[in-house]
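Sample pair:
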Amino acid sequence: MDIVISKDGTAVQRTKILKNRTPTEIDNLSERIVEELRNTELVFPTSKKKEKKKADEEKLKLTKFMKDLADSFSSSLIRIQQDGMGNPLVVASLEVLIIIMVKLDVDENFEKSFLMTYQAFVSSIDLLNHFSRIIGSDPATSNRVANFILKWYQARSDVFEDPAFKTTFDHFLTTADFGDLAEKLKGFARHGHIPVLSVLGAPAPILTHRTVEEKNYYDFLDFHPKELARQLTLLEVDILKKIKPSEWLGTGWQKGKSENITAYTIRYNQITGWVSSLVVLAVTKELRAVIITRFLQIAIECLALNNFSTLIAIFLGLNVQPCTRLLQTWAVIDKHSLMLWEKIKEFASPLNKFKTLRRAQEEVEGSCVPYLGVYIGDLTMIEEVVSDKTEDGLINFSKFQFISRIISKCEIFKSKLNYKLSVVSEIVEFLSGISLFVLPDDTMEKESCLRETR
């Protein structure tokens, strides 16, 4: 099948997206896919109820910690309030927050919130300079600063890999006396931790053999759905591992400041557009049905891999109006496949802010590629309605505690990424070019109407 792709209405490129298949070949392919789907077990992650008692204990502990803080400083420097759910809220000056980090027995969650979000209100180099000023002749303070820096590195090794910060940090170490902890800090300065994706014990790739007639050309239907899902997962992992905590601050993805979140969003939209475009560009309803069921297969394989991101991208690609309006196409899809589709629709439902999806991906114990769109939406909302500082200039730290919880979830996802899968270069090369097959929205609508008029 040859198509003309024009992104801006002027540039024209003729690109072949699907091999020419006879009706008999399409029927045989359809029968095979339907049979495979009938033998597919659709298993959604089960939800585990969290212990309410433990959550209440954590809230009481944090409330007590914050009350003690309020008693230690002037109300012009820190204030503690409570929201409608009884959760403690805090606003404070930067100086007080730093003193809390290094001079008090700080609550673990409070400390993590600071480490994950401090770049929203102070740069890493300026924070280091603050530490320089409070280190004096008091060995106890120096020791606390050193211990905090160890925690800083463990939580945010990405900061210590930045060349500009590393230079400042090296100088900082030459001017501060950290006693026995000095060598350990210098070791952190010299060596960075770069996680490596393990492929030991990876299952054998499911390879596709080229035909003699088309030895230089693959199309989407040539690849095994399980292997396509694996390679899509590895591509997602590659992006996810690169996202730094600082990229989640200040809706940086809307301002060109969050390189890897932007890359994730672009890739996600490409997959969604690719799915929709392939469906509407297929000339016959039988071929469109084959394409839909094949994507359904890939979505189910992604679910088995806990790759919720690609699962949702495929779901949304099939669920757009240019695809759902193709009633004649959906009518020739077998009942079992449609039942699986309805289950995926229920699982991927945006009702209650993707409640089912959120719970599933946050409770996976092993490797998981989350759908980041839910967290991007959460952070966009809070940035729009809650300011970074109060009218009298104090840092609205409760906002950053909320943001930190989201960042921490994403860091946990990253820490558990250890898919034992091998890269298949032919499929990766194919997937890297899918943007060529993504039609503009108006063209997609026109193509859909050409396929089935009403």
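The CA atoms of residues 117 and 400 lie 6 Å apart.
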